[in-house]
Amino acid sequence: LEQMRAIAERSRDPKLLAIAYDRLARHELDAGRGLGVDALLRKALDAAISSGDRASEIEALRLLGHLRRDQGDTVGAVEALDRALIRAGNDPEHLAARGLTLANRGTLKWRKGNVAEAIESAAESIAIFRRLGLKGYQAHALNSLGVALLSNGAFEDAIACIRASVVLDREAGDRIHVGRKVSNVGQIYAELGDTARAREFMERALYVFDRADDAGGRADTLSALAELMIEQVGDLERGAELLDEARRVAERLDDAYDLAHERIVRAEWHMARGDVARAESVAREGVTHARAAATLAYELLAAAVQSRCLARLERKEEAIRLATGVIA
What we know:
mainly alpha; 328 residues; 0% strand
């Protein structure tokens, strides 16, 4: 990819530049490395518009939406994805780009708590990719649908979607995305109380992340596995070790989403040890990180833990106000 960029820059052909910058930016985002991607995408957009390359322009806007989502800029993410959808329209030539953008939009809507819209976007993208026979992209959309269905409590349907997605990824030799999906399946088994399967899938996911050098996926899975060890296995020592590693990874990436996840589970760890005051403080940090990541689900979870802590600390009025806000 770096060689492709060098060739494109020597040629000064705006169309080649747009393609090269888009592909390098996508690779960096897939690997969980956001540093420098903003500049790449701005160059890609300028080159695509200059050359009239609509496909590269749509791809740059879609990737910009992905980047803004990871940065916690929900408004910027929605704006970029909406621009990509407008540029794609229903033109058959850009139907695949529309499907990819819809899959990204579904993930964003899920993070904001708009589950119905998330399911609608994912379902449309799956229909597009099936029609086009694009199995790799279909895998991405199936995973988005699975995550949305999980939020709706449809656990078995969610597992079926994500497992089907994993099968398609393996057929395509895609290791980067397989790890995150295997982790998602493990987390669903944890919700169902199947501790053995949950642990097996999440530990397998960590192995894949090591092989694929996916730090972002690793941080999320470490926190999820820590929660399993704390709440279902009762191994607080192992839970603390996993959380320590999750926090180191999340801080290195400066990822508010993963920091929120770690703080929520860490608060539960303090609760399990009987340190309610510390748990309340950590849960409050979780709320702050969740808001920075524009992740409604984590914000509600962190606020619920904080409210529970306040009640146990006899600060009942504060607990009631916070709990009322969560319910509202």
